[in-house]
Specification:
Length: 300
């Protein structure tokens, strides 16, 4: 009797009609998987292909009422967990959150901090044990909707933390009334022949402190060092290498489009195939930072 096909997820730098997830940037017609981040360079879409039925997708869009991102986050995550937990794919592996004006508001009234409060009010204990890999980016346009895209599976992923950084869920009070709910990365299919490491949004942070404020090149170099440290952690946890140069898909979110040429020049020395890098206009959740990376890295 043939053994069942092991779970496998691949990520391609082009759109496919059979994709489990097809991210489209700045589209003509909005949809739950159309992200309002202007594409500055690189592939126009990103296709996630799954073999078998091990993986599933949930895409949720919630309208903000009166610009209340906290209420929208609570509603989105209540709906997400209500759909996922009773299903055959109850494990949340990777989440993307997009909403406009992420840095608007001062102190604890900042929209990103209010988003974190709303999310924390809606999730369950399983969500935080440990939290999924995740990214939160400020999309273009005016406040009006929150988009949450979640990759789910029949089995949990292996959560990773970066030894150079404080776990986000342990941030001190200075970063908000509720700590962000995400792990630094996740290894999918860790016990198979085809594991992949999914890196969360990675920025220029050491410990919990932002670095190289006002220096875009310094921030990008620091972000790459953090990414490499996460890949090394994946190797330590699994015994498999996840080389930076083997990246299947890298997203580079730039606060200022003027930094595109500098980002391309720096990443040209990373070993990552330029055809697998998408540059997007997006706001980092920390207002003092100007670049954030996320990516998918298969083992060798």
């Amino acid at each position: 009797m043939d053994s069942p096909t092991p779970p496998r997820l691949r990520v391609l730098a082009d759109e496919r009609p059979d994709a489990l997830i097809a991210f489209r940037y700045a589209p003509a017609a909005p949809s739950p998987l159309a992200v309002d981040c202007a594409r500055l360079a690189g592939p126009a879409a990103e296709a996630w292909l799954a073999e078998g039925d091990h993986y599933a997708l949930q895409a949720i869009e919630v309208a903000e009422t009166g610009g209340d991102i906290q209420a929208a986050a609570a509603e989105a995550y209540r709906r997400l967990l209500a759909a996922v937990r009773p299903s055959s794919h109850p494990y949340l592996l990777r989440i993307w959150n997009y909403f406009a004006a992420i840095n608007a508001g001062e102190g604890d009234d900042e929209r990103y901090r209010r988003f974190c409060v709303g999310r924390a009010a809606a999730v369950d204990g399983m969500f935080n044990d440990p939290p999924p890999a995740a990214t939160a980016i400020g999309a273009d346009g005016l406040p009006g909707r929150l988009q949450v895209v979640a990759l789910c599976a029949k089995a949990p992923a292996l959560a990773l933390e970066n030894p150079r950084q404080t776990p986000a869920w342990r941030y001190p009070r200075e970063h908000g009334p509720v700590s962000p709910g995400f792990s630094r990365g996740a290894v999918l299919d860790a016990g198979t022949a085809t594991p992949r490491l999914l890196a969360s949004g990675t920025a220029s942070i050491i410990g919990h402190v932002s670095q190289h404020v006002g220096d875009f090149a310094g921030q990008l170099h620091e972000s790459l060092r953090n990414l490499e440290a996460l890949l090394e952690q994946g190797e330590q946890r699994t015994g498999r290498r996840f080389p930076l140069a083997g990246c299947e898909s890298l997203r580079v979110y730039l606060r200022h489009p003027r930094d595109l040429a500098t980002a391309q020049a720096i990443l040209a020395g990373s070993g990552i195939d330029a055809g697998r890098i998408t540059y997007l206009r997006g706001d980092v959740c920390r207002r003092e930072l100007d670049v954030e990376l996320e990516g998918v890295f298969p083992a060798v």
